[in-house]
Structures are given as structure tokens and as C-alpha cells.
Amino acid sequence: MQEKLTINYTNDLHSYFENWPKIVGYLKENKQKQKDAGETCWLVDIGDHVDRSRPIAEAFRGKANISLLNEAGYDFATIGNNEGITLDYDDLYHLYDEAEFRVAVANLHSQSEEDPSWMESSWVVETAGGVKVGMIGLTAPFPDFYNLIGWNVQDPIEVLKREIGPLRSSCDMVVLLSHLGIYADRDIAAAFPEIDVIVGGHTHHLLHEGEFVNQCLITTAGKQGFYLGEVEIIWDTEQGCIIDKRARAIPVSDLEDDADTAEHVAIYSENAAKAMHRPAVVLPDPMPCTPFEDSRAMDLLTDYLRRWTKADLAFLNAGVLLDSFPAGAISYMDIHRICPHPINPATVSLTGEALEQIVNAALQPDFVSFPLKGFGFRGKVIGKMIYSGLTFDTTGTEAKPVAVNLKIHGKPLDPNKLYTTAMADTFTFGSLLPNIKQAEGKKYFMPEMLRDLLLEAFQEIEK
Predict the structure, then answer these.
(1) Among 66, 18, 34, 2, which Cα is nearest to 230's?
(2) 40-99 pLDDT, tens digit each
(3) pLDDT in tens, 184-243
(4) Which helix (H) or strand (E) holds 5?
(5) Is the peptide bond before 141 cis (omega within 30 degrees of 0)?
(6) HEC per residue, 195-253
(7) What is the C-alpha to C-alpha distance for residues 20 and 151, in angstroms, rounded to an integer?
(8) What does R_g of the chain's alpha carbons equal in angstroms?
(9) In angstroms, rounded to a whole number, what is the distance separating the alpha carbons of residues 457 and 439?
(10) Can you tell me the distance from the alpha carbon of 138 to that of 250, in angstroms, rounded to the nearest whole number?
(11) Cα torsion at 379, 56, 451, 284 (round to 10°)?
């Protein structure tokens, strides 16, 4: 005799609710269909459902996301870095207080008090036929960020070494809810044969049919709700083992909307707009912005960033401002729309030699026009780099410009001196500017985001 377990999941929605009614329509219908057939179907979210670059998540600090997951009938979830490090401590601590589903995150704990009541490491839950399924959740570790806002995040591998044995011994199969990314998922599958299925997210990969590593099925379904994921596991009750497991990513474009969900999203959107259209500042003059040129708004923001962080100099890419500001009253919605990124200020200690290399790299046309994705950036291109406290002349050609005569507050750049340099935390990740990633002496500022500093810079000139 055989039993089928279906896991439908979403990952990395990033509060793109345009397709959410279609997703929920399928999830509700399929869950009822499996129930009518006497089978088990669980709905799971793998994190980054919240994204504060989107108005609904910003206005309600993720609480509306949880309500929408409740209404859809979700059963289980783990958290992503957008839930974890873009919300302040109290907002995350209470984010899932009203959740009607269980939340597993085994590698995150409060620094100062008991973990929130919703936070679990793992559990064992039975299917309709009595098969015991162990689930454990893990989120991407960003210790430099979590430590600043009151959380301890642990190495997921070390947590698995400690937790997987007891969990495996108490169940028939193990499913890992992983917001670690596909590369970590592959490593885990290779190292932990106890895990049968990894439902993944974080790196936005799309696996149309999943993949197998060490007999473990790995699956993930892209980003922003263009696909939803489905895993089917076939259990043989006589043999007492899994005899088949498969996965697919389902495109949602042709699915039918769930009418109630569409209505609720519209209501949340309207209420978010009302909350955020409050006036924030009055600008005496219009401020045109383009990613490829200097602008007064970028100069104000970059200069304020330098002063706010008490750095020697600062730089920001003009692509962080997505539109121009008109003269007159500017609302919180305007600030959020034009600077939506969940990006925090950072400082890095850089030598003068490294700074010169960074300035020259940022001058190159390919860098300026690069369509950056991820690392908190929600714009289209990096744009021109804007500086405060640093000046230089440009020689060379249009295709290969070269920075010369670099000065810090009027004094020649010393190649051997360390300078405290303020920037968007975006540049401390990845390989865009290797000198920054390789540097030590990094400091992050949280929970403030760039748009908070932008508003404060505008408020200075309003006075």
C-alpha cells in the first residue's frame, strides 16, 4: 500500500503580491483535492515573503504578509534574511505572534531574552496515514547584521550536526526547510544522508524538476511568485520507506485568481498607501535625479551619510534614487518609492591605494551601466558613483576614464593610510568591488536604511 505526501511551497516572494491571488487559488484547490482523496497536502513558505521595498510590507512591517499566509491556509514556514535583518528586533520578535502555522528556524536565538513563542527548531508531524515527517528550518547566517539588532545566528552546518541525529531517529523521513541558497543546499545534501528532501530558497534559482544530490531531492522555485513549487513523496507502507519523490515548479501566469485573496491584497494596498501618504518633508525646489549624473539629492544624501557615520569620506551610487523629487510636500510614500532598497549604511577601513582602485573601477562605463540584482538593491543600474570628502580629476578616454589627483578634504590621497569610508552595505557583498569585500574593519549600522538618512538630509534643508 502506498501513501502520497504533497508539499506545495513558495519561496522568495519578496512581497510581490501581483501573482499572490493566483498562487493561493492553486494552493487552496490542490489542498482540498488531496484532502478529498484521503492524502496529505501541506503548504510551506521558505522565507523572504516579506520585503520592505514593497509598500504593504513597509507599512505593516510584515504583519500583513502573515495575515495573507494565514488566509491561504499555510501549515509551516521558515524565515529569510528579509524577515530576519530588515525588521528591527521587536518587529521580528512579534512578527509571527498571530501566525496560524508553525515556524522553524533552528539557528536563530534572542541575545537577551527567551526566544519568541512561535520560534521552533524542528518538529515531527504525521501525515493522514501516520507517516512521521521530521521538519527542521534554517536561515542564512548574517552574523554581522543579526548581532547588531539583538539576535544570535548560528552556523547552519553546526546546528545540523547537533540536531539531525535525534530528529532522524524520531521520524520516518526528514524535510529541511532551507533559506540558505542552492549552493549550501547541495553541500548539505552531500554531507547529511539523513535528509530526504530540501525545500529551498534565498538564491532565487529555479529548478523546474528539482535535482538529486546523494539521493536527496533539492527543489526551489525562483522568486517573486512567478512560480510555485510542488513536491510529491510516495511512501510504501509495507516496506516502510520512500519509493519515489519528485518535484516541479508550476508557472502561475495561467492560473485562476482566488477572488477573496485578490480583494484582501487590494485592501492592504489601499491601507498601506493611506498610511504612507502622510507628508514627511517640504522641499523648496525640485530635485531632478538620474542614475548617470550628479544631482543635488545624491549630493545631500552622500554628504549626510559621511557625517552621520563620522567617516572620512563617503560614496553612493546614483542608481539608488529611482526618480526625481518635485518641489513642495514629499510624503513617506514618495521617499519609499524613490529609495525602496532594504540597504543599510556601512563603513569600511580602506587604504588610499584601495580607494584609488575603487574610484577607477567605478568610473568605467560597464560598471556604471551594470544591471545589479540582489544585495538589497532594487533599482535598475548601479549608476554613477557620487562622493563626499573625496575629489579627483578625470583623464583618459570616454571608454577608459582614469582618476588622477585624488584628494581627501583637499589633501593628497595617501596610498598607505587607512580611511574610514562610508557606503551602502551593498558593496560589502559579492565581487563588484573586491577591495571592499576583502577589507577587514567593516561596520554596519542598523536598523537605519538609506531612505531614513535621505529623509533626515532633506529635513536639514527644510529647517
Answers:
(1) 34
(2) 999 999 999 999 999 999 999 999 999 999 999 999 999 999 999 999 999 999 999 999
(3) 999 999 999 999 999 999 999 999 999 999 999 999 999 999 999 999 999 999 999 999
(4) strand 2-10
(5) no
(6) CCEEEECCCCCECCCCEEECCEEEECECCCCCEEEEEEEEEECCCCEEEEEEEEEEECC
(7) 30
(8) 24
(9) 28
(10) 24
(11) 100
| Model confidence at 173: pLDDT above 70 | yes
Q: Which of 331, 321, 315 is nearest to 363 (CA)?
A: 315
Sheet holding 313-317, edge to edge: 385-388, 313-317, 418-424, 345-351, 442-444
61-97: b or e for each residue (b if 16 or more CB lie within 10 Å)? bbbbbbbbbeebbbbbbbbbbbbbbbbebebbbbbbe
Whether pLDDT at 463 is above 70: no
What are the sequence ranges of the domains in the chain?
Answer: 2-272, 277-462
Equal fold, 2-272 vs 277-462: no
Q: What is the mean pLDDT of the chain?
A: 96
C-alpha cell of 173? 523521513
Q: Is the pLDDT of residue 169 over 90?
A: yes
Confirm or reject CATH 3.10.20.70 for domain 277-462, answering yes or no: no
pLDDT tens column, 254-310 = 999 999 999 999 999 999 999 999 999 999 999 999 999 999 999 999 999 999 999
Residues 77 and 47: beta-carbon distance below 8 Å? yes
Q: Are the CB atoms for 426 and 346 separated by under 8 Å?
A: no
Q: Where are the beta strands (DSSP E) in 318-373?
A: 328-331, 345-351
pLDDT per position as a tens digit, 395-452: 999 999 999 999 999 999 999 999 999 999 999 987 889 999 889 899 999 989 999 9
CATH 3.60.21.10 correct for 2-272: yes
Rounded CA gap, 447 and 86, in Å? 7
Nearest to 69 by CA among 10, 3, 152, 131: 10
For residue 373, the model assigns a pLDDT of: 86
Query: Cell triple for residue 336?
Result: 519609499
> CA of 446: how far to CAs of 24, 89, 404, in Å?
34, 10, 35
SS3 per-residue string spanning 138-149: EECCCHHHHHHC
442: left (phi over 0), alpha (psi -120 to 50) or beta: beta
User: What one-letter code names the amino acid at 136?
Assistant: I
Q: Cα dist. 425→140, 264, 382 in Å?
A: 17, 35, 14
Query: CA-CA distance, 205 to 222, in Å (whole number)?
Result: 5
For residue 113, which amino acid is it? E
